[in-house]
Amino acid sequence: MLRRCFQAALRFIPHWPALYQDVVSQQTVGKSLEIWQTAHWNTRGLSKMSLWPFSVKSRDFSQPNASWSAEMQDVYNRYNALCEAETEESGKTGTWRKLPSYNRTLKYVRGGVCLSKIIQSKSRLFTRNIKDLGAAFEYVVFLNQQEKRCVCVFQPGHLLEGPPGHVHGGAIATMIDTVTGTLAGYLAGPVMTANLNINYRSPVPLGSVVVLHSALDRVEGKKIFVSCRVTSTDESKLHTEATALFIAFKMGYLFGS
Ligand SMILES: CCCCCCCCCCCC(=O)SCCNC(=O)CCNC(=O)[C@H](O)C(C)(C)COP(=O)(O)OP(=O)(O)OC[C@H]1O[C@@H](n2cnc3c(N)ncnc32)[C@H](O)[C@@H]1OP(=O)(O)O
């Protein structure tokens, strides 16, 4: 029975980029729906009547919130402006893109509302499972697909303590894995972390803001090599350096087929 559910799941999840695309388009369409409904409907009425299969009230965790410090907001604004900027030569929008972030991405794949109930319905993305604003992982990832790099603005909260007043090394590793994995996933489809090599250079104070700079080093067949540096927001201080190896795989691998 469980095997059949997983096989059904495979038909819905061809590969991750499509999943990301769906999330992005759902967000875009969801946003316009939201504007439309504000003008014409009350929320409850629309969600009862709409044929749109997703909740228009899904929470994108990468949006600014009250827990963000002024520094977090500043760095966010800086990269967000790059997303909206038009390049002088082409007149097209900039090459940076802010990635949305949900606590159950599976739900937003086509057909995913049902799947998310079938497959481990209580599962939540590790970095997005604490409801208190600012308590744990506050972060936003920006992607530059042309330059094959990502930047993540990260404000670690008080629940991530390791050494007194400072961030746990495992929490930093989690963020490195998340950002390098996101980059590898956008560039190569579904990937699994095979190796993560981290050098911790200086401790990160809880509540401070750091930036993770991640870049593609090379691709060798199904091996994707990515590096990452964690720095202060002005890049004057290096906190952590890492390299990661991801292996591209077919989704069937996760479900035993
Ligand atoms: C919207 C969403 C937002 C959400 C975005 C959030 C993103 C978060 C991303 C988090 C990602 C994770 O945490 S993933 C979870 C943690 N990782 C895991 O659990 C992975 C467990 N390990 C595995 O399943 C497997 O070992 C794999 C898939 C990594 C590799 O298995 P495989 O497919 O059998 O690979 P295999 O053919 O043997 O090897 C292929 C090539 O890679 C090399 N290779 C394999 N493993 C290693 C290794 N550890 N170190 C060096 N090299 C290795 C082999 O030598 C070979 O080289 P050559 O002979 O070809 O030269």
Description:
Helices cover 33% and strands 24% of the residues. The chain has helices at residues 2-12, 16-40, 43-49, 70-84, 112-118, 169-188; strands at 96-98, 137-144, 149-156, 191-200, 210-220, 223-232, 238-248. A seven-stranded antiparallel β-sheet has the order 1-2-3-5-6-7-4, with helices on both faces. It is globular. Dodecyl-COA is lined by residues 20, 105, 177-178, 181-182, 192-195, 221-223, 245, 247, 249. Keywords: Apoptosis, Cell membrane, Cell projection, Cytoplasm, Fatty acid metabolism, Hydrolase, Lipid metabolism, Membrane, Mitochondrion, Mitochondrion inner membrane, Transit peptide. Its main location: membrane.
Kindly state the number of beta strands: 7
The bound ligands are: dodecyl-COA
Main beta sheet: 7 strands, antiparallel
What is the fourth-level CATH superfamily of the largest domain? Answer: Hotdog Thioesterase
Helical proportion? 25-40%
CATH architecture descriptor of the largest domain: Roll
